[in-house]
Amino acid sequence: MLLEVKNLTVAYDTAMIINNVSISVDSGELVSLVGPNGAGKSTFLRTITGLVRWERETLKGTRYGDITIEGTVTFKGENIEKLPAHDIVKRGLIHCPERRRPFTEMTVLENLMAGAYLIKDHKTFRDNLEAVYHIFPVLKDRSKQVSGTLSGGEQQMLAIGRSLMVKPLLLCIDEPSTGLAPQVKQLVFNKIKDIQALGMTILLVEQDVSMTFTMADRNYILSHGKIVTQGTSAELLKDETVRQSYLGL
Prior knowledge:
Shape: globular
Strand order of the largest sheet: 6-7-8-3-9-10
CATH topology: Rossmann fold
CATH architecture: 3-Layer(aba) Sandwich
Oligomer: single chain
Number of helices: 11
Number of strands: 10
Largest sheet: 6 strands, mixed
CATH superfamily: P-loop containing nucleotide triphosphate hydrolases
Strand content: 25-35%
Distance between the termini: 32 Å
Structural class: alpha/beta
């Protein structure tokens, strides 16, 4: 198993955000974590990639209160739940954040270079850059353009491309469809499927269930911080209670 999360619990002061969540992702899979706004999906991703732990250390002793993290996160057989975020990145677990977050005053190429900060060999950098350009030709066309002037869809492609610059073993993508028109959303999802077809393992967090279920090998449904059910898309869509209560279908 590439990633195994067991009994993960995250609380901000007395507010429980993630409650005893366990999931697994095997090499080559595209696994989805779906659920409504406020379910805890983004907090889950931020926790397994070390960002919530960084936040806890940063806020320690301030008026913002304490953050409690419990449970285990195993990646490639190693427990990583206590590692800092930059060490988790070095191991190949990469977080593509919600709302894209490009460095808006930098060009497309400079953003991609920032994503490759761990790459010291020039040939490896060029090879990885060409691989990203092959998946997203528009980024090559826009390489000298300031990223803040890109469309929402182009910024989302840039965010994913930046995450791919270190050739992750597991790419965690947070809400890639946010704010995108249906046609652009479909294009972005097609690109994600293309990336998986190249052998990339993906953990996809999304609200758009109908589109996500056409792509994912397995799915977890998160509601109020808990996994309420899991299974293949076909299995979950057969359950009328799941369809109506959690999927809005």
